[in-house]
Input
Amino acid sequence: MRLARGGLVLVGTAGMAYGAWLLLSRQDLGQIAEVVVWLAAAVVIHDGLLAPAVLGLGWVGGRLLPRPVARGAVTVLVLLGPILLVAVPVVGRFGAKADNPTLLDRDYVQGLVAVAVLCVCAGVAVALGELRSPQRADEEE
Amino acid sequence: MRIPTEASFTSRLRSAAVAARVGLWLGVCFVVALGTGLISHYAQLDRQSVPLPTSPSWLYKLTQGLHVAAGTAAIPLLLVKLWVVFPKLFQPVPRKVREALPTALERGSIAILVSTSLVQLTTGMLNVAQWYPWGFSFRATHYALAFVAVGALLVHIAVKLPIVRDALTGDVDDTTHDRPTARSAGPVSRRAVLTLAGASALGAAFLYTAGTVPGVGRLAALSSRSRKSGVPINRTARSAGVVAAATNADYRLEVAHGSATRALTRDDLVAMEQRTCALPIACVEGWSVTGEWTGVRLRDLLDLVGAPNGRDVRIRSIQTFSASSDTVLPASFADDDRTLMALGLDGETLSIDHGYPVRLIAPDRPGVMQTKWVSRIEVL
Output
């Protein structure tokens, strides 16, 4: 165990050092600085905006919603939340090119609405399932 | 508003038993993405000391499809993982220097792991949709940060190994490693969190990356590509600035082997023996579509200038400023019977956006290396 852990730390540190060297040696200073800005912004946006927003939803939901509805809401949040983030580049069509109709060639808003409806249906099914089997709640206590 | 402490987080869902399981799946995604990413990076090198195999022709399509799918699946998993371990952000720092130093090192490695993971998954996802809101090189940065992220992951696993082992061998509802304040039952069970995280990961990967998979591609509602118009196009002739040169009557395909050279018109090529081959265009962005390519076998052209077997071949394009405008085809690919200088696709004359007058199509090669608008073939 001790050996395995030591080995992992060694290989991991070497990997980080190699990656850092690649990062610093293959691009100009302006580009490297922009990568660093992205690395910092990623943590700030996740820890400072996204995570507190989800915490807030959980806090409000936990106080306002009855348990079966809360179950359904968690289902919708976990299924749909990440998909909404993943959908941003295609729904926004930010990479679209006027001369290339084979890129971004769907109606993404319509698709996203359909996916959202499916996720809400899953949430409703979970909430109804909870209402129908009250004994399940006792088992989990 | 006061700053929360670790004790402020009371849900029993935020447990090592959950974190270890989601982390295990996340680790699998990262390993798949790293392995397939290294293959893709190697396949795009100009000089490969050991060339990748030419068969099966769908190997790169498979590995790069897995790369993009694993990366997309990792997005929901990472978000759930970070939700589970979020209280750790508010852990107090030990006062004594001897204890504070290891803590600082560990937290530093976690910060590196989280930020590089978020950036890797985000930039990869944006690349699939060809959205580049940055000035750095995507390829160089994605490659470099992959080593940093996986290195930091290995250090993280080393630090957590005893807890991970306990958590994974124990029951999911086990509370051995839980904080004493994390006792309140959430609205769902731990098993439900794992099921939802898995479903979210599979759903996101399917919706975002399965757009060109036969049969089900139509349902992949968030994919940037489809099979609607046959083989998709990455760079158009207009954006490559080759329209005038590609349609000029003076166009010739030069084939050179030392001092032996031939200059062929498109009609000369059409007059040669035509072969048809079903081969995929497999893009680094993860999509792939197989087309029926018709054209002259590259080996037949090499024979015209008396080139022996076993020689690497440089393929140059009319296009001058892109990575794919000047590539080296390893000998095993150049001599393969399926490697064509294609003149037609799916029964029609090659369109200018697909590389008219003539393009390279070889088995098991990244799409970006399937040079379009070929102007010169040089035996090395």
User: Anything to note?
Assistant: The first helix of chain A runs from residue 2 to 25. Chain A has a mean pLDDT of 93. The radius of gyration of chain A is 23 Å.
